[in-house]
Amino acid sequence: MGRKSNKGKEKKLKRKEENAKLAQSYAKVEAANKIENPMESLAAFKQYERNGLNLTIDCERVSNIDPSLIDWAFQLTKTNMETLYEQSEWGWKDKEKKDEMTEEKARYLIVKDQDGKPVGFVHFQFDIECEEEVLYCYEIQLESQYRNKGLGKFLMQILELIANKTEMMKVMLTAFKHNHDGYDFFTKTMKFEVDLISPEASLYEESYTYVILSKLTRAGKRAAALAEAAEHTLEHNGRCMSSNCGHAC
Ligand SMILES: CC(C)(COP(=O)(O)OP(=O)(O)OC[C@H]1O[C@@H](n2cnc3c(N)ncnc32)[C@H](O)[C@@H]1OP(=O)(O)O)[C@@H](O)C(=O)NCCC(=O)NCCS
């Protein structure tokens, strides 16, 4: 009897490792979703006093937000985005957007002025995307007179801090290519990059009007460095083995 190949065992081991990793990712998302207030330890970020603005920022679950505030957020999104959606393959649908904005897992950063009037918001969720734990930014919308004063950047930085604290791998979002200001804001100001899962990243899909952008968190950078090191070791071992014993590994 010859020696049995190890390939089957290796595959099984790899699958086991992948399943364990996925279980870990789900556990992290579940833990993040249980946190009552992700801004609890970010007291310094609850106030925005720059460029003539004096605003407060709170983080709330959608279930704790007054329906009239959700209506305002929906109307602001519609005002800012309807035309851009109409120019895309998706079109604008009130009900779909309302349903998305009120999904159970939805969290909001709500920005208010000194009189308690809302002036901007971020809708985000902790979720699994392509087997990775991510903080997905669904929406960032500011009333027009509050733009270009650094507030958008400040809010995105809060998201990055929350994603770091909850050990998500990335902050992720979908952006329209034809929303030039928004696209520049994410890619140039916030340094987001086209994600591997974006249709843009594929050679064969050039006709989409949107891209999926992402930015690695601390945990994401660590994981990427480990994966790169593992790949390097594998390549290196492969070369050594092939030169020493003639086996392709
Ligand atoms: C896209 C959006 C969220 C960006 O937020 P914002 O507050 O306007 O952006 P910021 O002011 O933080 O940053 C934008 C630029 O303005 C600059 N800026 C900051 N403070 C400034 C000031 N006082 N005066 C002029 N420019 C300023 C920033 O430096 C940045 O430019 P940079 O590329 O040189 O860094 C906001 O414009 C918006 O709500 N747009 C409509 C909705 C939308 O398109 N949302 C995105 C899709 S979901």
Automatic annotation (TrEMBL):
Keywords: Acyltransferase, Cytoplasm, Lipoprotein, Myristate, Nucleus, Transferase. Its EC number is 2.3.1.257. It catalyses: N-terminal L-seryl-[histone H4] + acetyl-CoA = N-terminal N(alpha)-acetyl-L-seryl-[histone H4] + CoA + H(+); N-terminal L-seryl-[histone H2A] + acetyl-CoA = N-terminal N(alpha)-acetyl-L-seryl-[histone H2A] + CoA + H(+). GO terms for cellular component: cytoplasm; nucleus. GO terms for molecular function: histone H2A acetyltransferase activity; histone H4 acetyltransferase activity; protein N-terminal-serine acetyltransferase activity. Its main location: cytoplasm. It is found in: Cytoplasm; Nucleus. Residues 60-211 form the N-acetyltransferase domain. It holds the Pfam family Acetyltransf_1. It comes from the Eukaryota. Belongs to the acetyltransferase family. NAA40 subfamily. This is N-alpha-acetyltransferase 40. The lineage of its organism: Eukaryota, Metazoa, Spiralia, Lophotrochozoa, Mollusca.
